[in-house]
Structures are given as C-alpha cells and as structure tokens.
Amino acid sequence: MLSPKEGIQVGPTANSGFNHTVLTVTPGIPGDSGSGFLDKTGKAFGVLSTLALAPLPASNGVGDLAKELDYARTFPDLLGLQLANGTGAFRGPILPQP
Fold it and tell me: Is the whole-model pTM more than 0.90?
C-alpha cells in the first residue's frame, strides 16, 4: 500500500502558474497520477500530473488545483464544479510550502 509522501515545492510555478515543481523523497510512479497534494495546513493545492526528467530529475509536476478548477468552469456544463469534502481526516505528512 502506498503511503503519503513529504516534500517541498521548488522554484517558481510554471506555465502561467498552472504547474508546481515538487520534490519528494521518492517521485511519483505510474499509477500515482491524479493524486492530491496538500499544503502545510492540509488544504488541497494540486494534483500530480507528471514526473519530470528536466530540469530537476525525478521531480513531480503538480497541476495547480485552483487554476484547473477555474479553467474547467469556463465550460457551460461545469459552471457549478466544486471540491467535495473528504470522508475522513487526513493522517500523515503534509507537503510544506516555501
């Protein structure tokens, strides 16, 4: 079973703020895509989308959740799209922000 990972966001966001580069002890692996990333307060800030090879090998590309939701809401059928609360408390390391 996979367990939560702890890491840090490195460098500025890319692609007009749509992407964060995040380093974790072990990078994401196939099947981890879509996993949520939390900030140090436990709020969701991103979704794992890529494993980067450059400029930082084995870093994770994390899509900015707020920007992704805003973009999705530009489509008429998704105007009411919103996050739903989880079914239980998160227990584990939380990704710190710089």
Answer: no
